Amino acid sequence: MTVLAEPFDCGIPGVVLEPGDHVCAMYYGPAERDDVLLPFLRAGLREGNKCLCLIDGVEPSELLTRVMDGADAAPYVTSKQLEIDRATSACLSSGAFSTEHMMAYLEQTIGSATARGAYPVARAASEMSWVLPRPHDSRAVVEYESELNRFAPRLPQVLMCLYDLELFGGGMVLDLLKTHPTVLVRATFMDNPHYLTPQEFAAGRS
Predict the structure, then answer these.
(1) What is the C-alpha to C-alpha distance for residues 176 and 178, in angstroms, rounded to an integer?
(2) How far apart are CA 167 and CA 109, in angstroms?
(3) Every domain of the chain and the residues it spans
């Protein structure tokens, strides 16, 4: 099933997203990450969206404090409208990275939240730096990113993958450009001319 596209303000000035979008957010350092991530999550809470964030570059409790900016977090945390967890906990819960596991995790977390109509849209942001100490998983991660392009339109969701260009080398960045239809670089949003569909990407890897 492909969801109906209804554009909405993602919280970043000048950037409008649609359910089904899969975005690669590239930035330099934690401050630029927060310039993208915090408005994205705050706008989601304000609009009544389900918000999921997987992150390792900052403690989840510290990120929660930054997102709320003095507001009471309890209602959002108790209702699970806002979930912040370590990326390693979600991505490596089975001990090794698995595309199938991650798809099942997203299906459960996002699909169950939106299926009941409690949340019209889900926003999920995932920081990917966990893969850096695990170079043997880098190929699987890039293939997972490609498969997300089949998954993203199935639910009313926006998926944002976070990559710090101070940490990731050029070789992996080139593959990431092939697996994301849209790119957000230093809060500049653009369609990606290097994008390959999952079928095209798989053919090029074989």
Answers:
(1) 5
(2) 28
(3) 8-185
State the average pLDDT over residues 139-146: 94
Which residues share a beta bridge with 16?
9
Q: What is the pTM of this model?
A: 0.92
Using DSSP bridges, classify how beta strands 157-164 and 122-127 pair: parallel, antiparallel or unpaired.
parallel
Given this model, what pLDDT does residue 1 score?
35
| Nearest partner of 50 among 131, 134, 6, 115, judged by Cα | 115
DSSP of 108-136? IIIIHHHHTTS-S-EEEEEE-GGGTT-GG
- Whether 82 contacts 45, CB under 8 Å: yes
Look at the alpha carbons of 162, 164, 168, 172 in this order and tell me if their dihedral is positive or negative.
positive
Could you give the maximum distance between any two Cα atoms of the chain, in Å? 51
Our CA dihedral for 121, 80, 33, 105, rounded to 10 degrees, sits at -80
Q: Which fold has domain 8-185?
A: Rossmann fold (3.40.50)
* Tokens 């967890």 found at: 85
pLDDT digits 0-9 by tens, 22-58: 999 999 999 999 999 999 999 999 999 999 999 999 9
Q: Residue 179 in 3-state DSSP?
A: coil
Strand partners, 157: 122
